[in-house]
Amino acid sequence: MDKIVRFDHVSQYNDYNNHETLHPLVSVVDFSNAGLRPPAHINLGFYTVFLKDVRCGDIRYGRHFYDYQEGTLVFLAPGQVIKIECNHGPYYQPQGHALVFHPDLLKGTSLGRHMNDYTFFSYDVHEALHLSERERQTVLDCFSKIDFELRHAIDKHSKTLIVTNIELFLNYCQRFYDRQFLTRDNEHKGILAQFEHLLNEYFLSDKPQTLGLPSVGYCAGQLNLSSNYFGDLIKKETGKSAQEYIQAKLIDVAKERIFDINKSVSEIAYELGFKYPQHFSRLFKQRVGHTPNEYRMFN
């Protein structure tokens, strides 16, 4: 197995890349000074965003390669372990830039309070952000502003300006992901159709009795997507959360089965994957406005 390289501190990562440490909790790393290095597993203890300028070592997370190319952003949350592989020799030369910032930098800030809103830090390996040339320049401008503040003499405004610029960068990334959802519209419509087919097949099988109600995580896994990317995609495509979409399908199936007078409401609830019939009745009334028995009587 390749060597595992662990970085708990930003300064350690800077040293690894022959980069000057200007702040203990944040850095904009230019890989042009980094030396050749062998394949390795890397464990990062801070938020990391790679801007990959050219193909310079393949990043693997789990069993999959990151879907990156020239001008692509890759997001890693603290604690993730990635593998850098070399396909053209025993060593590779990293190129491009990285923004790294420790969670401690965000303590007591607005960004720290809603960092979880940036769900792309939990996207899977093949869900990287592909940039246009104009978007790439915007990213480089953001990195430049952060680097400018890091090189400025530290004063009472430093932390606010650094964190504000990081937040601005992340907000741009949200905009760029919204654009990517739209420009990959055909691919995403295919996923929506697969999602619909998956739910249809699920409720026609005995999986509800053995696995219970289909979860967002289960559906995302079946479609080879991370839960966050899948949820964001479905929201963009349908205006509903993935959970709301699943519940709508569940109610649609339930409406059909309620007209089978040979089955009690409890039997139908168990068939659909509910452990407790009262939970089914409560959800049905919330979504339809009538209890299952009322719906059966009035329709």
From TrEMBL:
SMART domains xrefs: HTH_ARAC
Q: Identify the residues that the record assigns to the HTH araC/xylS-type domain, covering every copy.
A: 197-298
- The signal peptide, as residue positions, is none
Q: Which InterPro entries does this entry report, sorted A to Z?
A: Homeodomain-like_sf, HTH_AraC, Tscrpt_reg_AraC-type_HTH
Q: Does the keyword DNA-binding apply?
A: yes
Q: Which UniProt keywords apply?
A: DNA-binding, Transcription, Transcription regulation
Q: Which GO terms describe its molecular function?
A: DNA-binding transcription factor activity; sequence-specific DNA binding
Does Phosphoprotein appear among the keywords?
Answer: no
Q: What's the name of the protein?
A: AraC family transcriptional regulator
